[in-house]
């Protein structure tokens, strides 16, 4: 079990890293982009804005923690 | 245009990871002898090449939209990690990576470890070199596989990574010291920007988006993210200095 757990932990850390909220936010932004696009709305701007917002929030949290 | 970015991203990511792996291998080789760490390097390189050769073509069998959505999302999450760390380093919230310090620490650990030779191998030297190259190389393999398969140009991405490996190994063999002068933090910043740009582009395309200007949108995205990252560095640096002044 511990081998499976450490294998999963390695890949979680490798892909998701220190802040899971960024990965969760990207998943939500992509779902919203897909929903808007499939309803005929141009949503190319959504993901870059979400990335900017998520990055700023994540950095703010990291800075507050280390201060 | 995306071919140039593809090669550049694979080359830079590989170079910066190989510089880190080189420091570990050099520290072990200088302290305990070269044979076992070099066998470790060879074994790790074979494992990495096998991972790329197996997963790259397998991914290319997926429908292109699914591939772009999944790989784009993974690349975006992964790239944001690189960019986040690079911004924290540039703004002083995270220490800069120092190859000479890593080299010193690895050397003293290697000197202190017991020498147990079995079947003519120094297993400590082999294991540390194998682990170092494999772990640093996994990030490169991930970038080569994701970039190469999404663009359908696995060979070009692997060539970029291979070229960096040859350059770093040659320079390392000539200099025989950690490559402390390589601007690692700047390169990591650039790679973080490239991964985030491509991740955003492909993930959105996979979700059904048509980018204005098609591939030209990559340049716009790169400019937007670079301006954002530099702005965030400035803001965080100012915030940190204000905090330090307040505490003094």
Overall pLDDT of chain B: 87
Distance between the termini of chain B: 50 Å
Question: Are there runs of chain B of 5+ residues with pLDDT below 50, and where?
Answer: none
Q: Tell me the Rg of chain A in angstroms.
A: 16 Å
The coarse silhouette of chain B is: flat
Count of individual beta strands of chain B: 2
| SSE string of chain A | HHH
Mean pLDDT of chain A: 90
Structural class of chain A: mainly alpha
* Oligomeric state, counting identical vs distinct chains: heterodimer
Strand order of the biggest β-sheet of chain B: 1-2
Rg of chain B, rounded, reads 20 Å
Strand content of chain B: under 5%
Number of domains of chain A: 1
Helix content of chain A: over 70%
Number of helices of chain A: 3
Number of DSSP helical runs of chain B: 8
The biggest sheet of chain A amounts to:
none
Overall helicity of chain B: over 70%
3D architecture notes:
The complex is a heterodimer of chains A (67) and B (248). Chain A is mainly α. Chain A has 3 helices and no strands. Chain A is flat and about 45 Å long. In chain A, 28% of the residues are buried. Chain B has 248 residues and is mainly α. Chain B has one domain. Chain B is built from 8 helices and 2 strands. Chain B has helices at 2-32, 35-59, 64-90, 99-112, 123-151, 154-175, 184-206, 217-247; strands spanning 117-118, 121-122. A two-stranded antiparallel ribbon of chain B has the order 1-2. In chain B, strand 1 (117-118) and strand 2 (121-122) form a beta hairpin. In chain B, helix 1 runs antiparallel to helix 5 (123-151) and helix 5 (123-151) runs antiparallel to helix 6. The longest helix of chain B is centred in the first third of the chain and has 31 residues, at 2-32. Chain B is flat and about 60 Å long. The A-B interface holds A 14-19, 22-23, 26-27, 30, 33-34, 37-38, 42-44, 46-48, 51-52, 54-56, 58-59, 62-63, 66-67 and B 69, 73-74, 76-78, 80-81, 83-84, 87-88, 91, 93-94, 138-139, 142, 196, 200, 203-204, 207-212, 217, 221, 224-225, 228-229, 232, 236, 239-240, 243.
